[in-house]
């Protein structure tokens, strides 16, 4: 994982739940990640899946990913090209699922400093999100979490550790 990431913003509000991120009606009928991507955020933002570009960044309010613990709510965004998520806060299980799937997430108040389409830069080491309206800070992710993300997720990370 690069220490810095620059991307275009998709801005959302508070309490975006997993059923909106990946609609529950597909939970048991779609298992291929590539088939999940076209349904990412379809009930909240019908333009998202057809307009998102690789490297884009979601910036949101509080409690992103509340609701059920479905991993598809992380996988569909990652597969759609989302490079990171910055939110005021995350539901605990979503936070862990994002790490497990190697989708970088940052807990930060940057939502007030961005608009849709803005370009922002996240510096994971310095703990900053640079927006057109200022620089916001966050506690940098611990080295252990960065290692999981760098290795491509929890399963590849564990496999790497076992193989030495």
Structural summary, described in words:
- The chain has a 7-stranded mixed beta sheet with strand order 4-3-2-1-5-6-7, with helices on one face.
- It has helices at residues 18-21, 33-36, 48-51, 72-80, 92-100, 143-150, 154-163; strands at residues 4-11, 57-60, 84-87, 105-107, 119-123, 128-131, 134-137.
- The chain has 164 residues and is an alpha/beta fold.
- Helix 6 (143-150) packs across helix 7.
- The mean pLDDT is 95.
- The chain contains 7 helices and 7 strands; from the N terminus they run βαααβαβαββββαα.
- It is globular, with a radius of gyration of 15 Å.
- Helix content is 29%, strand content 20%.
- The protein has one domain (4-163): Alpha-Beta Barrel (Aconitase, domain 4).
In short:
With 164 residues, the protein is an alpha/beta fold. It is built from 7 helices and 7 strands; from the N terminus they run βαααβαβαββββαα. α6 (143-150) crosses α7.
Structure keywords:
164 residues; alpha/beta; Aconitase, domain 4; seven-stranded mixed β-sheet; 7 strands; 29% helix; 20% strand
CATH class equals Alpha Beta
The low-pLDDT segments are: none
Total domain count: 1
In DSSP terms, counting alpha (H) and pi (I) runs of 4 or more, how many helices?
7
Return Rg in Å. 15 Å
Q: How does the helix and strand content classify structurally?
A: alpha/beta
Assign the CATH topology. Answer: Aconitase, domain 4
Strand order of the biggest β-sheet: 4-3-2-1-5-6-7
* Beta strand count: 7
Distance linking N and C termini: 20 Å
Order of helices and strands: EHHHEHEHEEEEHH
Biggest pleated-sheet summary: 7 strands, mixed
Shape: globular
Mean pLDDT: 95
Helix content: 25-40%
